């Protein structure tokens, strides 16, 4: 008889992917949510597990269930959760359930404030390219993979380990629950200001994670990051330590080449941070039995992680990029990457501030000098997003002081920003839009046309 699980908040991006992977594994799955957006809605409907109505229904919770999977979006007073507690049904947060399903596997966790999705995507690409049998959990929809989660009888699982909270019932970071055998750490840059109020508090989470590495395990760490380097050089156990930095590379005519013993290999990703990500992925692959030549063979076909350095349009002398960058370290790395890849082109960089941290005046100083590599720096923020988070709208002068950039321009109306960008010429110019949001669904067709066609 197949096991039965009910998802509270089934519409979330990772939650619905887990639900779909469990259906594929033969489990019986039901779920609820108060709001389900695309693409979750259609995907759940196609798998025949879309809830009939929006909302919470305690009668869906019954003793015949083997477990409840609780999404971060559900509140502690959720009526379905209360009923499950009354009935004594096992309740798993998302990461706890992943661990339950992978106890017998070798667990590789990719952690850090930035680069996690890219490193995980690179590893998955290489393993898939070579036909290896593996499970995974990744934080974005990536090319060549139908789901963000796969659970099967594979001997290994690659997990993108997020430091954000586990669930409404468990305020610890998700990555504590995976009990890694191999841990990679890319870098530590204060994020999630609403959850970790001080940098010391944020740093402690990563220190605790490293301390959880078993003696027979391995810690792969980026020694270019000063905080990670300290953790790597501290002695928390007998596990193997593997430091790494950026893979050696050359740039020629806007293309990055990996310098390898056999030949220089062209790759699609670029920027010092991505060459660090790539070296980290190589170290993980070697730790699980993939040789360096096999890695190089596969990585030249890697097109990049979703929404990272994504090319929306291009012509001979210009490229229009979109990138997920939002935290200070990600913003700085992305701007510098595009400028160093195309040093002779003008760079117009636009950042949408919409996370709690980025809209908070007390956090703003962390953005100092992150825009320095751009020739023109623009900020977009929606006053409604600020009001929703019960924060104060910052002025252009405040942002200029915070970013340490006197010529920074602020836009608070999407149409004004759109008109401004559409009015510009883009001869020998790259445009970079950065955000973990969507610029209020700005219509980009006209802008893309300026890059698809020489003016």
Quickly count the helices: 14
Residues in helices, as a percent range:
25-40%
Mean pLDDT: 93
N/C terminus separation:
65 Å
Binned strand content: 15-25%
The tally of beta strands, per DSSP, is 22
Radius of gyration: 23 Å
List the strand order in the largest sheet.
Answer: 7-6-8-5-11-12-13
Structural class: alpha/beta
Uncertain segments of ≥5 residues (pLDDT<50)? Answer: none
The biggest sheet amounts to: 7 strands, mixed
Instruction: Note the overall shape.
Output: globular
Overview of the structural elements:
The protein is an alpha/beta fold. The chain is 31% helix and 22% strand. It contains 14 helices and 22 strands. The strands form five sheets. It has a seven-stranded mixed β-sheet, sandwiched between helices. The protein has a six-stranded mixed β-sheet with strand order 17-18-22-19-20-21. It has a four-stranded parallel β-sheet with strand order 2-1-3-4, with helices on both faces. The radius of gyration is 23 Å and the shape is globular.
């Amino acid at each position: 008889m197949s096991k039965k699980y009910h998802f509270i908040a089934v519409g979330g991006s990772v939650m619905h992917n887990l639900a779909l992977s469990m259906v594929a594994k033969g489990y019986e799955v039901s779920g609820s949510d108060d709001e389900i957006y695309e693409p979750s809605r259609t995907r759940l409907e196609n798998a025949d597990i879309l809830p009939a109505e929006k909302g919470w229904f305690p009668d869906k919770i019954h003793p015949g269930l083997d477990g409840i999977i609780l999404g971060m979006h559900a509140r502690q007073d959720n009526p379905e959760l209360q009923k499950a507690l009354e009935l004594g049904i096992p309740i798993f947060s998302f990461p706890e359930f992943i661990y339950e399903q992978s106890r017998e596997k070798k667990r590789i966790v990719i952690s850090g404030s930035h680069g996690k999705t890219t490193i995980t995507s690179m590893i998955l690409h290489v393993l898939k390219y070579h036909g290896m049998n593996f499970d995974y959990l990744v934080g974005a929809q990536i090319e060549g993979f139908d789901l963000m989660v796969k659970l099967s009888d594979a001997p290994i699982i690659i997990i993108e380990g997020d430091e954000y909270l586990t669930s409404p019932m468990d305020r610890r970071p998700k990555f504590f629950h995976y009990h890694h055998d191999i841990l990679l750490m890319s870098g530590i840059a204060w994020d999630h200001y609403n959850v970790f109020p001080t940098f010391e508090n944020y740093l402690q989470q990563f220190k605790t994670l490293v301390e959880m590495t078993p003696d027979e395990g391995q810690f792969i760490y980026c020694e270019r990051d000063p905080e990670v380097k300290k953790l790597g050089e501290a002695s928390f156990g007998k596990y193997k330590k593997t430091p790494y930095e950026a893979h050696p590379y050359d740039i020629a005519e806007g293309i990055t080449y990996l310098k390898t013993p056999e030949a220089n290999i062209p790759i699609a990703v670029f920027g010092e941070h991505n060459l660090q990500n790539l070296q980290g992925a190589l170290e993980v692959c070697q730790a699980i039995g993939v040789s360096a030549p096999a890695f190089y063979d596969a990585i030249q076909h890697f097109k990049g992680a979703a929404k990272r350095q994504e090319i929306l349009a291009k012509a001979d002398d210009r490229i229009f990029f979109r990138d997920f960058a939002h935290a200070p370290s990600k913003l700085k790395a992305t701007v510098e990457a595009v400028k160093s890849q195309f040093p002779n082109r003008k760079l117009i960089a636009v950042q949408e501030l919409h996370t709690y941290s980025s809209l908070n005046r007390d956090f703003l100083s962390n953005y100092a000098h992150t825009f320095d590599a751009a020739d023109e720096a623009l900020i977009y923020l929606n006053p409604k997003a600020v009001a929703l988070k019960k924060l104060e709208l910052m002025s252009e002068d405040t942002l200029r002081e915070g970013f340490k950039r006197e010529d920074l321009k602020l836009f608070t109306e999407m149409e004004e920003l759109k008109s401004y960008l559409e009015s510009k010429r883009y001869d020998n110019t790259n445009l970079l839009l950065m955000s973990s949001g969507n610029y209020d669904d700005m219509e980009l067709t006209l802008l893309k046309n300026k890059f698809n066609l020489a003016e």
